[in-house]
Amino acid sequence: MRTLSSPTPRDIVHTPTSEAQKYGYQKNTEPPLLPSVVKGRRASCSATAWRRAGLQVGSVTAASLLLGSVYWRLARATSDRRIRSPFRGSGSHAPHPADTSMLYLVGLGLGDATDITVKGLEVIKQCSRVYLESYTSILTVGKEALEEFYGKELLLADRETVEQESDDILKAAGDSDVAFLVVGDPFGATTHSDLVLRAVKAGIPYRVIHNASIMNAVGCCGLQLYNFGETISIVFWTDTWKPESFYDKIKKNRQNGMHTLCLLDIKVKEQSYENLMRGKKIYEPPRYMSVNQAAEQLLEIVKNRRDRGEELAITEKTICVGLARVGAADQKIAAGTLQQMGTVELSGPLHSLIITGCMHPLEIDMLKLFAIEESCLDNLTMSDSSTYFS
Ligand SMILES: C[S@@+](CC[C@H](N)C(=O)[O-])C[C@H]1O[C@@H](n2cnc3c(N)ncnc32)[C@H](O)[C@@H]1O
């Protein structure tokens, strides 16, 4: 995920670049030099002139520091709030002046309504409008349960709203605080950079309240996060569209000894071909790809590649991990072969699949806790002195 900047602890609140340029400070370094401080510096610079005039440097420096400090205090009391707003509450979450609005991107975590952070909940309570992004992920509870727990009405924001009507969200954020809720982490395997970039362009400050993401929570199966390669998405095949590009990324990861996290397709607000053709806004029920469906598609690719005489990156016997509803009370993890993933029962959504790369003995011991059959982890090939491969 590309970020706009590499935030320092003091850069939790992001400010539009135009504002940064306007007030002449650099991003991601020191906090801004407010006009008052700049004035203080000018006072300090004038020491050269004083010194030339033969006065004691020490006393002049002290005087200029004092002057700077008085200016600073005065300016703090009277200065334009817009100047200070980008850094207000930085590091804390104290209430802020009502005349400066903010766009908050709030992560909801992975399980249910109670996975929100204390910071996130405080933000929701103070916002005049709260949108719930509803197309990249889901919790185990629906909108009503969230509304009850947060004590706030939520506006559902589907892909259309976010991509085509983001101006409405930003217009609201220009008038008063607005929260945009995202399941997991707002920047974990979801790209809301577009909304952020538009906010920055419109001069609306934004702040991100992070939470757990599937990108880090998969560590619960025992495979170590620093042994993962590129994350991939497995899409639902249709009768006429069966892309295999994700297999090639798995191949690259396996060649490098890395595990592959496969995020599985979600289809919400999908129109049937007929309804699309007739322009009827009738939507199919949501679909969430299961580990079984992902494994079936992968097994078909393995077969295709074998038929073509290719050297295989994975086989039916490759060790995989299926994960369902990570973070929820009824989460399920199952380790076994790709073939076994085709039939393992993990019940309701959301599901993720991991294809293993080289495994450390400790990772293998952890996987045994979740093994469908422990014996599948007994016959691994030693890839080097300390790791094993399936
Ligand atoms: C586009 S990602 C959304 C990521 C989200 N913003 C986050 O930070 O977790 C959605 C995919 O991640 C996986 N996923 C998300 N939450 C999950 C969970 N609790 N358990 C298993 N898989 C999950 C599923 O494969 C799902 O289709």
UniProtKB/TrEMBL annotation:
A Pfam family this chain is assigned to: TP_methylase
Top-tier EC class: transferase
Enzyme Commission (EC) number: 2.1.1.314
Reaction(s) this enzyme catalyzes, per UniProt: 2-[(3S)-amino-3-carboxypropyl]-L-histidyl-[translation elongation factor 2] + 4 S-adenosyl-L-methionine = diphthine methyl ester-[translation elongation factor 2] + 4 S-adenosyl-L-homocysteine + 3 H(+)
One annotated GO molecular function: diphthine methyl ester synthase activity
GO BP terms in the entry: methylation; protein histidyl modification to diphthamide
Record InterPro entries: 4pyrrol_Mease, 4pyrrol_Methylase_sf, 4pyrrole_Mease_sub1, 4pyrrole_Mease_sub2, Dphthn_synthase
SUPFAM superfamilies reported for this sequence: Tetrapyrrole methylase
Chain ranges of the Tetrapyrrole methylase domain: 102-341
Stretches the record annotates as Disordered: 1-27
Keywords: Methyltransferase, S-adenosyl-L-methionine, Transferase
Superkingdom classification of source: Eukaryota
Pathway: Protein modification; peptidyl-diphthamide biosynthesis
Family recorded in the similarity comment: Belongs to the diphthine synthase family.
HAMAP family: Diphthine_synth
Summary of the function given for this chain in its UniProt record: S-adenosyl-L-methionine-dependent methyltransferase that catalyzes four methylations of the modified target histidine residue in translation elongation factor 2 (EF-2), to form an intermediate called diphthine methyl ester. The four successive methylation reactions represent the second step of diphthamide biosynthesis.
Name by which UniProt lists this protein: diphthine methyl ester synthase
